[in-house]
Design goal:
Strand content: 15-25%
Number of helices: 14
Shape: globular
Helix content: 25-40%
Number of strands: 20
Low-confidence stretches: 1-8
Structural class: alpha+beta
Radius of gyration: 21 Å
Largest sheet: 8 strands, antiparallel
Mean pLDDT: 92
């Protein structure tokens, strides 16, 4: 087992740079046995344990002053079962590697989030999701998982084996143990036709129910300080494949969505008064387009402009009202917001602490460019979201605590009771979990 910097540990930082931690030691186990031994050794030394992925969470969910487990040697596909339609993958595998490997095998996940930099275990543990009328988060596509618990034992979970752990650990925020492997349900690779086009805010909100019902995957972005939205509809297609041309892809996805957008954000951060004018230009920069490709090339896109983010899940029926309140708040406030607001959906699922647990859900995500003060905007947005029974994304900035979350989640007590059983000494605890799950 290796520790970084000759056993001396450095500082760990997340992607957005808003969370840092100084662990007592770092461990990079090369096997499940080594990981179990690291957990047992931490217990003997009285240290807490956290596994980290690529740090794409904006919360301190993975921060620790104890033992930091880096899973980069626990990667790759363990097993493909074509008959069962499943693939078992090591927990430290980046989603990018999983998507590429599945595509080579002629397979795909049914749905995915909009970036693929995260590790599979990090993505599921915080409830990473895309958008879908019928298909839900990445965690909802899990059929089994393997977990190292506080005493170092390895627990296999599925609907048949340890079902109560399976119900909770698919989105476990790292509170129940360290995930070592995940079995996903997969299907033969298919094609999606993406249709992206501008629409006005009023048009999108007044026809939202139809847009949602008519498309397998519908999402949209609203540009604050404007009445403009960009809509995205992804639906299964018989083909033929018609990917975005390299030149257009470079221009729109790299130059406009990353390059020019980055510059515009720097200008806006320096001179906030320019933001409304920039927003009007940004909202018109991307023209309508259609293309057909395999799922991960349609669902995911590069995100090189760094930001901070808050996202809340509200009942789908409350989306339009919530969003109109958000727009009214921005319109009458002195806030200057240079990042679009992202809206997605998910069907109800049966995962204990999933943001879509037991209810059809819509997600509203608000962002601020890295280095721009976000507190005033996020606090004002959060007041609106919580008034609509909002549930915060576990990996994104929010100010909620266990008292609020116990009301927001009907099965909250089921999760905390399971945690008491699996980790009575809070070996996997940290300050963030103390806040959101209580003592």
């Amino acid at each position: 087992m290796s520790s970084t910097a000759n056993g001396k540990s450095g500082t760990w930082r997340n992607w957005a740079g808003n969370v840092t931690a100084r662990p007592a030691r770092e461990v990079t186990p090369a096997s499940v046995e080594e990981l179990s031994a690291a957990v047992r050794r931490a217990a003997a030394d009285g240290l807490r344990v956290k596994a980290v992925g690529t740090g794409h969470s904006f919360t301190a969910a993975a921060a620790t002053d104890g033992v930091l487990i880096r899973p980069q040697l626990l990667t790759g596909i363990r097993k493909i079962d074509r008959e069962a339609g499943t693939v078992t993958v090591e927990a430290g595998t980046p989603l990018k590697r999983l998507n590429l490997a599945l595509a080579r095998e002629g397979l795909s996940l049914t749905n995915m989030g909009d970036i693929m930099e995260q590790t599979v275990s990090g993505a599921i543990s915080t409830g990473t999701h895309g958008t879908g009328r019928d298909s839900a988060s990445i965690a909802a596509q899990i059929t089994g998982l393997e977990l190292v618990t506080a005493d170092g034992s390895v627990l296999s979970c599925s609907e048949k084996e340890n079902p109560e752990v399976f119900a909770a650990a698919r989105i476990g925020i790292g509170a129940l143990g360290v995930i070592t492997a995940i079995t996903f349900s997969v299907e033969p690779v298919f094609l999606l036709t993406a249709r992206e086009e501008p629409m006005s805010f009023d048009e999108v909100t007044s026809t939202f129910d139809e847009l949602f019902a008519e498309n397998e995957h519908f999402e949209f972005y609203w540009f604050p300080h404007t009445d403009s939205c960009t809509t995205k509809r992804n639906n299964r297609s018989a083909g033929p494949e018609k990917p975005v041309s390299t030149v257009r892809g470079l221009f729109e996805d790299e130059f406009l969505s990353n390059g020019v957008f980055q510059v515009a954000n720097y200008v806006g951060r320096g001179v906030p008064a320019t933001i409304p004018a920039i927003a009007k230009i940004s909202s018109r920069a991307l023209s309508a387009r259609m293309y057909t490709d395999i799922p991960y090339k349609v669902f995911t896109s590069p995100r090189r402009v760094r930001f901070t983010e808050m996202e809340y899940a509200v009942p789908r029926a409350a989306l339009v009202e919530t969003l109109r309140e958000l727009k009214a708040m921005v319109d009458r406030s002195p806030l200057r917001v240079s990042f679009p607001v992202e809206v997605r959906t998910a069907p109800a699922d049966d995962i204990t602490l999933s943001t879509a647990s037991g209810r059809d859900t819509a997600y509203i995500a608000v962002h601020m460019f890295k280095g721009t003060p976000y507190q005033a905007y996020f606090s004002a947005a959060e007041r609106i979201f919580t008034a609509h029974e909002g549930r915060p994304h576990w990996g994104k900035i929010h100010s909620r605590d266990a008292e609020y979350l116990a009301e927001a989640y009907p099965r909250f007590g089921e999760f905390t009771a399971l945690r008491d059983r699996l980790d009575p000494e809070r070996r996997f605890g940290n300050d963030y979990l103390r806040r959101v799950l209580g003592e």
